[in-house]
Amino acid sequence: AAECKATRENVAMFDQSTFAKYLLKGRDAISVLQRLCANDVDVAPGKVVYTALLNERGTFESDLTVVCLAQDEFYIITATGQATRDFEWIRRHIPADAHAELSDVTSAYGVLGVMGPNARTLLSKVTDAELSNAAFPFGIAQTISIGMSEVRAVRITYVGELGWELHTPMECLADVYDTLWAAGRDLGLVNAGNYAMNALRLEKGYLAWGADLSTDETPLEAGLGFAVAWEKPVDFLGRAALRRQQAGELRKRMAFFVLQDPAAVL
């Protein structure tokens, strides 16, 4: 509860290093991803895209985040428990003649999440990078310096507050952590864990594959139709099934409830 309160009202730091991370490189990388991703990932370098991976039924195989590093290189972030599953799903859908190589870089990069209304204040103490909304909007990744290390700062959140995920080579992780911790003492920075993250994302209505989403749900049923690029020029996997569902009726729909009694335990 204290970690949740700090994240909502001040600033907290999460170790998200166990998130699975891949690199997809090659001149055909974009065509592979456009076929697999329901959202449009043909974006400018530095753009971050949340997307579903769907099967032919239009239901989820996973949901993940794609960061465009260059027109032929993409950094893919997915959940801790799906490292093997998602890697294999993507790998099996790379055509044999495609110029695209997928590599698992999970162990190479650590991730620190700096989250909360004072996240910008904290980061401003340790980097010269411009962090304003205009210079560093939501859904953008930039390389910044913290301490003696360069990090890939991704402005995205799984807890619903202002924040950045800081992806750094594993050998630099301790330096980045120590620099942030020292700078955050007078702000009341706290360490926060996965139980707090799960509670916060539930209260914000953010979904998790394997808990809220499975191979039995579609983006329309999950309320994630906003992350489907219906008109993109590539016929992504599952689009025909989603179009059929869009033209008919939903058999179920994800719903969220706010209790009138905040003390009740579900």
Tell me what the structure shows.
- By secondary structure, this protein is an alpha+beta fold.
- It contains eight helices and eleven strands.
- The chain has a six-stranded mixed sheet. Strands 3-4-5-2-6 form a five-stranded antiparallel sheet, covered by helices on one side.
- The longest helix has 12 residues, at 173-184.
- The chain is globular and about 55 Å long.
Characteristic key phrases:
alpha+beta, 11 strands, 26% helix, 266 residues
In short:
The protein is α+β, with helices and mostly antiparallel strands. 26% of the residues lie in helices and 25% in strands.
Structural class: alpha+beta
Supply the number of helical segments: 8
Order of helix and strand elements from N to C terminus: HEEHEEEHEEHEEEHEHHH
What percent of the residues sit in helical stretches (DSSP H or I)? 25-40%
Largest sheet: 6 strands, mixed
For the termini, the CA-CA separation is 16 Å
Radius of gyration: 19 Å
Widest sheet, order of strands = 8-9-10-7-1-11
Average pLDDT for all residues? 96
Uncertain spans: none
Overall spatial form: globular
Strand content: 25-35%
- The beta-strand count equals 11
